[in-house]
Design brief:
The protein is α+β, with helices and mostly antiparallel strands. It has a domain of 103 residues: Cupredoxins -  blue copper proteins (Immunoglobulin-like). The chain contains 3 helices and 9 strands, in the order βαββαββββββα. It has a 4-stranded antiparallel beta sheet. Strand 1, helix 1 and strand 2 form a beta-alpha-beta unit. This is Phytocyanin domain-containing protein. Keywords: Glycoprotein, Membrane, Metal-binding, Transmembrane, Transmembrane helix. GO terms for molecular function: electron transfer activity; metal ion binding. It holds the Pfam family Cu_bind_like.
Length: 183
């Protein structure tokens, strides 16, 4: 595909070639409670009821006067050590994109908050290799770990948001294609 200079018209649908549709899920940590120490939110249980994938967005919604979000190592997560974070987020409305499989550890760095349970392990399952039964054509087979999906009541607004964002993106592509036809 040739690049066109200023004033040259290209195919009307060329912007579509540059768009990638993503069906990432958006998970609000703690659901309606958000990221807090109030209400005894069980973040371990919250995460265990979700199936996370690479590309998903993790939303931490909280009052930035009282909380923050720190991504930490496994050792720091276990010890509630906030002195050497990988990343620190402080806006009160932080969205973190999951870019790799494995465990992603987050905690609140305000003294005492992690110790009271304000920490979460976002686990994106890796594909596991297991030994196949003897006599099978392959000595290895692949199996994937499954975790129960979120309840429909907690995910309905998120899927509605994804649908809205998808429609917005498609509308932008159509508009760009329309405008590029007049350039």
């Amino acid at each position: 595909m040739a690049l066109l200079g200023h004033g040259q018209a290209g195919p009307a649908l060329s912007p579509i070639l540059f768009c990638k549709v993503s069906m990432a899920a958006v998970y609000k940590v703690g659901d309606s409670a958000g990221w807090t120490t109030i209400g005894n939110v069980d973040y371990k249980n919250w995460a265990a009821t979700k199936t996370f994938h690479v590309g998903d967005l993790i939303l931490f919604a909280y009052n930035p006067q009282f909380h923050n979000v720190m991504q930490v190592t496994h050792a720091d997560y276990k010890a509630c050590n906030a002195t050497t974070p990988i990343a620190t987020h402080t806006t009160g409305n932080d969205t973190i994109s999951i870019t790799a499989r494995g465990h992603h550890f987050f905690l609140c760095g305000v003294p005492g908050h992690c110790q009271t349970g304000q920490k979460v392990d976002i686990n994106v399952p890796r594909t596991l290799l297991v030994q196949a039964p003897s006599g099978s054509p392959s000595s290895l087979s692949t199996t994937t770990t499954t975790v129960p999906a979120p309840s429909p009541s907690s995910t309905a607004p998120l899927y509605a948001l994804m649908g809205l964002l998808g429609k917005l993106g498609l509308s932008m592509v159509v508009f760009a294609a329309f405008v590029s036809g007049f350039a």
